[in-house]
Amino acid sequence: MSNDxxxxxxxxxxxxxxxxxxxxxxxxxxxxFAGKRHYREFLASDEGISSNILADxxxxxxxxxILTRADDPAHKLKAIYSLTARGIDLLPILAQISRWxxxxxxxxPELARTGxxxxxxxxxxxxxxxAALRRLHLGEG
Amino acid sequence: MSNDxxxxxxxxxxxxxxxxxxxxxxxxxxxxFAGKRHYREFLASDEGISSNILADxxxxxxxxxILTRADDPAHKLKAIYSLTARGIDLLPILAQISRWxxxxxxxxPELARTGxxxxxxxxxxxxxxxAALRRLHLGEG
DNA sequence: TCAAATTACTTGCAAAATGCAATCGATCTT
DNA sequence: AAGATCGATTGCATTTTGCAAGTAATTTGA
Lengths: 141, 141
Description:
The first copy, chain A, has helices at residues 11-19, 24-34, 39-43, 51-63, 85-88, 91-104, 109-121, 124-138, and strands spanning 67-71, 79-83. Chain A is mainly α.
């Protein structure tokens, strides 16, 4: 993972090189807000990701240190994906994207609710949810 | 042209459908932080965007209501691009991406300075820069 | 004044990424 | 033993990207 062949060292660019595509942040979203942890669950998202793209993105996110993959101890068939600390740190970005879209795009009112609630709860809400994610994803691994 | 053929009405998804690629937010970055307004300036970015991709992204961003394009009154050859209100509202997202990358990626220290300064200045700094952009891009067009 | 430079793009083409459907071997359920 | 379920992989068509070259209109410089 020591291959520094980035287009530039600009912070904005480096972020985009890791999660700047149409699918990666949706996977993160599903983990954070829908509690998804398994391949089949991600595959069933509203947006309809293809199985090969999903496999590719999960591998990339693991490579980037945003997710980890572990075998489910109970089910040998099941892999369980967890957020890392750096994955959990993406929440403020998601919250900000949500805010922008709720201001400027024709969002589904039902799907906008969690974001609205978070904004209504004040600036501590994001940090609170990050703490909860840390307990869930880092507490046990 | 009211074709709402989005993958879903989820706020995160809708944002990604507009600016979820490797180039769009870099153009916005160059407008916000480097004061670029002309095609040739965008073309000269560190990351090396191709001219056809740049033309495509500028057109998309104009379509999405994030930028406007106007003929330069002084130079008939020059087009001048401006941010709209909804384009300026992307600044908090950029600031958040910058923050994530400065925590988790090998950013160029020199390029990280403006972000660090913004964070050091406190939460009002983003709003202040947005106000400045509004004066520059919306004040006159 | 007129050739050279500059402007915002467009074009052609190869390479890479994406999307879709079918399939895989391993494991789990019944 | 049979079928369902798991996380993928494969083959193939379509779309997007990247690169180099070219375009027409305008502006600059000698």
